[in-house]
Amino acid sequence: MNGTGRLEHPSGAVYEGEFRDHLFHGAGTYTFPNGAKYIGPFSENKFIFSLSASPVQCLK
C-alpha cells in the first residue's frame, strides 16, 4: 500500500498516517494500547526521534 491510511493492530495499537511499500513511512501518529502517542516522522516502520539542546540549556 502507498498513500495514507489507518492500521489497527489486535493489541489495540493504531497507526494513522503515510505508508510506502506497506510500511509506515512519512508523517504519522502511532497510538500505543495504553493511550500514549508518538506523533512525527516514520521511516520503514521505525520512529524517527530528534533531540536537540543548546549549550545554554545544558548549563542551566
From TrEMBL:
Keywords: Repeat. This is MORN repeat-containing protein 2. The keyword GTP-binding does not apply. PANTHER family: MORN REPEAT-CONTAINING PROTEIN 2 (PTHR46917). InterPro entries: MORN, MORN_repeat_protein. Transmembrane segments: none annotated.
